Amino acid sequence: MAEEGIPIRHERHLKEKAFEEFKRFIVIFLYLWVVFGLLSIYKSIVLLQSHLNYPEHAFALINALICAKVLLIGEHFHLGTRFKDKPLVYPIMHKCFVFTALLVCFHIMESIFMGVWHGDTIRDSIPPIMGGSVRGLLSVGVVCFVVLLPFFAFRQIGEVIGHKELWTLIFTRRENNLRLT
Question: Where are the domains of the chain?
Answer without folding.
Answer: 1-65, 78-181
